[in-house]
Amino acid sequence: MTITAKVLASSGAMSDHALRGDYSAAAADFSVAQDMNAYTPEHHALWRRLFARQVTLAKTHACQEFLDGLNGLDVADGIPDFERSNRFLRARTGWELLAVPGLIPNDAFFDHLAHRRFPVSWWIRDESEIDYLVEPDVFHDFFGHVPLLSHPVFADYMQIYGQQGMKALAAGQVKRLSRLYWYMVEFGLIKNARGLRAFGAGILSSFGETRFAVESPEPNRIRFDLKRVLRSEYRIDNFQATYFVIEDFEELFEASKGDLLPVYAEIDDLPDVAPTARLPEDVSVTV
Ligand code: HBI
Ligand code: FE
Asked: Measured in angstroms, how far is the CA atom of residue 269 from the centroid of ligand 2?
């Protein structure tokens, strides 16, 4: 298999087009140097536009932990230099960012997370892709994912996810575990004294989905339950039909830290749940 085919197959991407990143210069762990000189003034201007639009929404729709991290990173002015961000992250939680050409194979992805390294696509989308893109770019990866890596409990959760990923690979359970990443890391909601807020990167890096996820009466919002999430199929082509809601990051960490093999075994006899489906045992969360 070519490298792009390997990445596409292992990441479960359904399209057969080539990945857009250049993987030829990548190291064995898929990292590349972030060449700050490769960014044009237009690239930085596009970042500022995306950032300004999204930060305004985040103030009213993102959880406080995300906003604190985003503030500390101080990246409103242009595509961030990962080395500078790493000084901030290392001091907070010991995480660091690694530039990558785009999606990378599951084994490399899990290994990085398990060692507190977050892979970030270094390139930015085209002007024509402001509202939708197929592969994660630096705006999605950085704006969406990096702020919460500065939160101690979420930081521990992401490392645990990487460790669970390596075990899931060995056990043939990546498909199930990926649903936990999807519904929490990408599309998670949190409800606490401040109200219902988003913390998922797929939500917070999307102008349309931020309002939809937090405000629309349309989607299901269901109390987080690990087994329910591991059984739930998801959509990659539209806003989510269902969001899962946690109370705090401790809840997520506690639910995810143990041996998941017995959990996979337990749900093996149960059917998968369609993206739009509701189960009698689901606990609804109100806006
Ligand atoms: N690679 N760069 C990158 N970013 C991701 O979010 C990512 C990946 N490879 C695999 C992957 N995600 C998922 O399929 C896993 O969470 C299962
Ligand atoms: Fe993402």
From this structure: 30
pLDDT band, very low/low/confident/very high, at 287 (cuts 50, 70, 90): confident
**Lowest mean pLDDT segment, chosen from 104-113, 124-133, 211-220:** 124-133
Mean pLDDT, residues 38-43:
98
The residues spanned by each domain of the chain are 5-267
SS (H, E, C) the chain: CCHHHHHHHHHCCCCCCCCCCCCCCCCCCCCCCCCHHHCCHHHHHHHHHHHHHHHHHHHHHECHHHHHHHHHHCCCCCCCCHHHHHHHHHHHCCCEEEEECCCCCHHHHHHHHHCCEEEEECCCCCHHHCCCCCCCCHHHHHHHHCHHHHCHHHHHHHHHHHHHHHHHHHHCCHHHHHHHHHHHHHCCEEEECCEEEECCHHHHCCHHHHHHHHHCCCCEEEECCHHHHHHECCCCCCCCCEEEEECCHHHHHHHHCCCCHHHHHHHCCCCCECCCCCCCCCCECCC
Q: What architecture is domain 5-267?
A: Orthogonal Bundle (1.10)
Task: Quote the ligand 2 centre to 250 CA distance (angstroms).
Answer: 21
What residues are annotated to the active site? 140, 145, 186, 205
92-108 pLDDT, tens per residue?
999 999 999 999 999 99
